[in-house]
Specification:
The chain is α+β, with helices and mostly antiparallel strands and 399 residues long. It contains nine helices and twelve strands. 38% of the residues lie in helices and 18% in strands. Strand 4 and strand 5 form a beta hairpin. Helix 2 runs antiparallel to helix 3.
Length: 399
């Protein structure tokens, strides 16, 4: 059990159950690709692209064998329609041209040259093929725009939510993030780390709102933390400084946003002093860290948290600091409520505490996060309704 320096009952254990699945593939948007490579993005696309060609050849063969009073030309539209379902406008146009030639061959063989039936077959093939090509072009433009939006989102992530280093001092660090907006990689959840003269400090928080709409407040509090973390000797002083910065940001936002006064940010400040073995926290309405010991996940329990940033006080005395001792081998997970409040289709919450962690994660914060998140995707079946941020921290000396 984790002991506290100030109160022996500052650690609580809550239990729950969940399921497993894999998140890493789901949380990363696809890389931007050109529209003309749509077929190449799909597994087995080369084989699939050959299916319409084979269909044209089969229909042509059958059309040349059946009696001349059986006309199959109208069936050739199936080939470009099939190609349009998963390939590009160029490929669809090529198959449409091949189908038109094959239909003409069959109609001429049936003695329809000069007949209105042949004109009808050709006209219908042309009209439907042009519509299919237009559909493919529209889909390609939409894909190009989506790719550009994802590229912009990735750039915003690196500017606002900078990747955490793998190590600061003797601490090994890993992080995972998923924005609720499927086109975003940054949004209402945030985290940051800073190596300071007072120890290694972490911030994890949750802005009111989610996705790109919360990006303004996310950037403001992260910028304030990166500057203030080096200036204040204690976490309560740092929390008070962040409150002042958030209030200033909200006041400026009120000039253009009538609802700016309703903004707030839950936040958790965590400090690992250089001497090791001790963890300090200040919570502003944010969940306390999880601790992983003996391959089990439990939850630290602190005293009454302060209100969220934007609603708290500017006096450091308003913030209560909790101090915990940890043992060699312990790891800590900072998280946002997108993890704890995720629901399945029945409305049941996902619970991360009380579950077993595979022994292969020992000393590997990234593997620890991955396994903790394995249950999330299965529980929600890949449909998250809120941003999720996770940071795992373990002392290298404790491994």
């Amino acid at each position: 059990m984790v002991d506290t320096l100030t109160r022996r009952d500052a650690v609580g254990i809550t239990s729950g159950a969940g399921a497993t699945g894999r998140l890493s593939a789901a949380v990363r948007p696809q890389k931007a690709v050109g529209a003309d490579s749509a077929a190449s993005r799909r597994p087995g696309s080369a084989t699939a692209a050959a299916v319409p060609v084979v269909l044209v050849l089969v229909l042509t063969t059958v059309g040349l064998i059946v009696p001349t009073d059986v006309h199959l030309a109208s069936l050739f539209i199936a080939a470009p329609a099939l190609m349009a379902a998963y390939s590009t406008a160029l490929a669809t146009g090529n198959i449409a041209a091949l189908s038109l030639v094959a239909a003409l061959v069959c109609d001429i063989r049936d003695g329809l040259l000069g007949s209105p039936v042949l004109v009808f077959h050709v006209a219908s093939l042309l009209v439907v093929s042009l519509l299919l090509i237009a559909f493919c072009r529209s889909r390609e433009r939409s894909h190009q725009e989506t790719s550009r939006l994802r590229a912009i989102s990735q750039a915003a992530q690196h500017v606002v939510l900078r990747p955490l280093p793998d190590r600061i001092g003797d601490l090994s660090i890993a992080s995972l993030y998923q924005a609720a907006d499927p086109l975003a990689e940054v949004g209402g959840d945030l985290y940051a780390a800073a190596g300071t003269p007072y120890g290694t400090r972490f911030l994890i928080g949750d802005v009111k709102g989610k996705g790109l709409a919360a990006l303004d407040d996310t950037a403001a509090v992260l910028g304030a933390f990166r500057e203030a973390a080096h200036q204040y000797a204690t976490l309560p002083e740092l929390a008070a400084a962040l409150e002042v910065s958030v209030r200033r940001h909200v006041a400026e936002a009120a000039h253009t946003d009538a609802d700016a006064a309703e903004r707030f940010i839950t936040a958790l400040l965590v400090e690992f002093p250089a001497e090791g073995g001790v963890l300090r926290t200040v919570s502003c309405g944010h969940p306390m860290p999880l601790v992983v010991r003996d391959h089990r996940v439990t939850a630290l329990k602190g005293r009454m948290p302060a209100p969220p940033l934007g609603l708290a006080g500017a006096d450091p005395a308003a913030y209560r600091q909790d101090t915990f001792r940890y043992a060699p081998g312990d790891a800590f997970v900072l998280y946002t409520d997108g993890l704890a409040e995720a629901r399945d289709r029945t409305g049941a919450f996902y619970s991360v505490t009380g579950r077993d962690i595979a022994r292969g994660t020992a000393g590997d914060p990234q593997a620890l996060l991955q396994q903790l998140q394995d249950g999330l995707l299965r529980h929600t079946r890949g449909r998250l309704n809120d941003d999720v941020a996770l940071v795992a921290v373990q002392s290298a000396a404790a491994r």
